[in-house]
Design a protein that fits this description.
By secondary structure, the protein is an alpha+beta fold. It has two domains: 123 residues; 123 residues, no CATH class. The protein contains nine helices and seven strands. A hairpin with a 7-residue loop joins strand 3 and strand 4. Helix 3 runs antiparallel to helix 8, helix 4 packs across helix 7 and helix 4 packs parallel to helix 8.
Length: 268
């Protein structure tokens, strides 16, 4: 198998104080692990230039593997620092936008932790890692409809995959579908609706958010400036809820060493 170097570019309000070089296990073949060399440096307008080594049979496969591997680290980093981070194999400038004038400095230990977290989730809880991927997309997406859909997906994936493992969840009610699963998981984490962060006492929030998600995903509602504006105005709130939900679930209810429900139980 050949070794390739792949250049990747992160756009977002982050930087590093000095060049960072690290070596990380790429976990796609645990029986024959490959340790990827990572070289990180800041870009002038904000963001990062990364060079990633990967083992692959050809150029296209190397690029895809590097994007997935490095992207999953960014998924973990995004939830940790809560900054919008997009990834591309093409270096772009920001001619129509201002540069990131205020940037979060990320140190080497934070990258190390993000790589380790991605590896842990990849092996033990891949569905949760996928939810983090949706959250990252929701944070950087420019289209407010895409952003809203991605942020809701990050919540729904965790609720639908992991509710079975939580003792306090009413399993019979959760079987009614996604809205019930999200409701029960919010209760398991935060207690009564009056105690839910960012939406205290808003018992209609899940129904309204699910309805908005359905309108976007299925094109039910006519696409007007008013509709786009209304969805855009909800973006910060659903982002805040999703971020707290994912962080609290990871800290309090996720057990990486037992696999995902989809791997252990028949799907609904």
């Amino acid at each position: 198998m050949q070794i390739w170097e792949v250049d990747l570019f992160v756009d977002g309000p982050i930087s590093v104080r000095r060049r960072i070089r690290t070596e990380q296990q790429k976990g796609f073949r645990p029986d024959d692990p490959f340790y990827s060399e990572i070289d990180l440096r800041s870009r002038q307008a904000g963001g990062l230039h990364a060079t990633v080594t990967t083992r692959a049979p050809g150029e296209d496969a190397a690029l895809r593997a590097a994007i997935v591997f490095f992207g999953q680290m960014l998924d973990s980093l995004t939830i940790a620092i809560d900054q919008p981070l997009s990834l591309s194999s093409v270096e772009t400038t920001r001619p129509a936008r201002r540069p990131h004038e205020v940037r979060r400095v990320v140190d080497e230990s934070e990258f190390e932790m993000a790589f380790a977290e991605a590896q842990l989730l990849r092996e033990g809880s891949p569905s949760f890692l996928r939810a983090l991927g949706w959250y990252r997309k929701g944070r950087y997406a420019e289209d407010p409809l895409d952003a809203y859909l991605a942020l809701w997906n990050s919540i729904e994936i965790v609720a639908s995959k992991y509710y079975r493992y939580v003792d306090s969840v009413d399993k019979e009610r959760a079987k009614n579908g996604a809205k019930s699963q999200v409701w029960e998981c919010f209760k398991a984490l935060w207690g009564d609706c009056s105690e839910w962060p960012f939406i205290p006492g808003d018992s209609d929030w899940i129904d309204t958010s699910y309805s908005t998600r359905k309108d976007i995903a299925h094109g039910i509602k006519k696409l007007t400036v008013e509709h786009i504006t209304a969805v855009g105005e909800k973006r910060q709130q659903i982002s805040d809820v999703a971020h707290r939900f994912l962080r609290d679930w990871r800290e309090r209810l996720l057990e990486c060493d037992r696999g995902t429900p989809s791997e252990m139980l028949p799907s609904d």
